[in-house]
From TrEMBL:
Pfam families per record: Glycos_transf_2
Official protein name in the record: dolichyl-phosphate beta-D-mannosyltransferase
Family, as annotated: Belongs to the glycosyltransferase 2 family.
Species lineage: Bacteria, Bacillati, Actinomycetota, Actinomycetes, Mycobacteriales
Taxonomic source organism: Corynebacterium alimapuense
Record EC number: 2.4.1.83
Amino acid sequence: MNKPSDATLVIIPTYNELENLPLIVGRVRKAAPDVDVLIVDDNSPDGTGDKADELAAADPQVTVLHREGKGGLCGAYAAGFAWGLDLGFTVLCEMDADGSHSPEQLHLLLDEIDRGADLVIGSRYIDGGKVVNWPKKRWLLSKGGNTYISLALGAGLSDMTAGYRAYRRETLEAIDLDELSNAGYIFQVELAWRVVSEGFNVREVPITFVEREIGESKLDGSFVKDSLVQVTTWGFKHRLTQLTELSRELKKLVAHEWKTSQRHKRNH
């Protein structure tokens, strides 16, 4: 019997990951030989795109999608999702090129997809999850930020900024990817929240997140402030919508009870 994960695409966005790319692709192909890999390169000036072409030429299960300029992580994933959906993949995964997401743990995400999940997030902050080689301050900032985000949005998830994910194609097809925020990594939060809001089955599995050893992080310090401001705005609008809907339902209930009482009086 076929499983959704039988047709899995792992999307790896790259920008200046010349040294890391062969390592991560090699690990993916060894840990999950049946999956296909799509490298989405944003015209890296260090030659990452050329290296990606070499890897693809040597392996029919590796493909490269070249984009002009540095278009951002959200745009890279959106392009990768569109490519994978067009080719009929039933599961599409996000994975960083820097080795922070262990390909050896990919099966944890895919197993949950096969058990019925619509989106599986590799989480650092549930039981069994952990972070390696982060300063305590950075861990506290990330953990606290994720706690705030989940509470503000009422999402019930522990790691909404996580970038190690597996989606069923039906989940992505239900979301308008063109509407996602293209600022930093906040789109990960927005995408997870939209999936939750649509009523899909979202699960988290514990992963070990390892800080990159080669190259520099693309994340700047403004991300935390900008993200929390944006999430607070979304959360306020979400609560306001809930209150409006609750008020509407209460009015309907009161009107119904009043009509019922009037009918009761007329009958007696």
